[in-house]
Amino acid sequence: MWVPAEENAAGLRICLAATNNPDSLIRILPDMNHVFQKSQTDDTAEFFKIQGCMFPEALNVITDWINPHGSRK
Prior knowledge:
The protein is mainly α. It has one domain. It is flat, with a radius of gyration of 14 Å. The mean pLDDT is 85.
């Protein structure tokens, strides 16, 4: 089984809140595995059966965050 997203996100939110960084973002992407592939179960055996690359929705979330933040110095 993968790491439970909701349970771990709660701890990450607490840690990020302590940093006072307004640019922090935690986003849970339903039905995706740890390498951002679309998955049907949370069974790790499925990981080796999935064909394809990063799901476009995940790439969109990442680029939507990077675009406004990436050019800061």
